Amino acid sequence: MTSSAPTPAYRRLSVEERRSQLLEAALTLFAHRAPEDVSLDDVAEAAGVSRPLVYRYFPGGKQQLYEAALRSAAEELRNCFDEPRDGPLVPRLSRALDRYLAFVDEHDAGFSALLQGGSVVETSRTTATVDGVRRAAAEHILSHLEVTDPGLRLRMTVRMWITAVEAASLIWLDEGKQPPVEELRDWLVDQFVAVLSVTATRDPQTAALAESLSADG
Amino acid sequence: MTSSAPTPAYRRLSVEERRSQLLEAALTLFAHRAPEDVSLDDVAEAAGVSRPLVYRYFPGGKQQLYEAALRSAAEELRNCFDEPRDGPLVPRLSRALDRYLAFVDEHDAGFSALLQGGSVVETSRTTATVDGVRRAAAEHILSHLEVTDPGLRLRMTVRMWITAVEAASLIWLDEGKQPPVEELRDWLVDQFVAVLSVTATRDPQTAALAESLSADG
Asked: Quick check: A201 contacting B, CB < 8 Å?
């Protein structure tokens, strides 16, 4: 820890700003490459700083940087689900899906690597971060449906649909982003309404919801 | 490698038989506990052999034993999908699901640990084994549907449903195996028919299938 004079570029940013800048550079790299293919040198280069500076902010190296970038991406993804509680339900779901699919489009390679599992950087902490996003998505949907005490069958329906959306996103990326995003969005919305109707035939709580949903549209 | 006289118990089994016996003991342990909670000593004890003997067959230790047990479970799971190509399609899917859900019931804790990810024994090889089972399930379904050249929308529909079935299995285990397995099976079959109908509205290939499926039932 010698107090050598920092270069002008280093001096301009506060600790928080520098951390954000490094995180942003890392996130951009991790978004478009598998974690295996990103080195700390790449991050340093993308941020225009030295490798030791990256280590000063992230002493845990690539793993720590990856987990921090993932948490920041998870936060961004949660924000996609924010949707005003006005107007009919189906268009609300449609708008939230639009934002979610834009996120998938923007973070393509990183999104695939993360969700396909078996990555070297995958730990119980990264799994917990991803699960937290899934839970947040389910809570958002249930709160828009205005259900305070969702039963097992309704909860399962919502979580199964969220998993199906994830699977669709991965295949969509794999297939060169086909079918077109608007078609994918409408298709996923229609599937939600369809699986809710299936559950409605065996669950009174879901039946009441399905009815108000179709009255809505 | 001294040729000391083996104990009677060791002498009785051939190399292949011994390997199978160890694998079976491991599979039973890994089925009901998270991999973290199974030690080589546990496997040796369950098989009634010494720890060094387990190492002789699986020099890679627990990781190698886990991967071998997983491959053997994957094989068993693939067999669940075998279903004669006779009679209406929906009951065929229903019978295959019955076998699949019995497998999930039997391998509960191991199944959850494996699919929930972030486990210490998870590697790109274990991920590939699980993905192989998913692919086999999709191929089985498409071959029962008698589609030789499935388009993107149909493939996506089948894969999304398979993922939803996996999610349902995990929640089902988490919820103390509720709802009852027969209800879960019928629910999943109904969902398959429903999502196929949704895809049918935007894909001629799926539309033809959905029609023959409803003519069937």
From this structure: yes
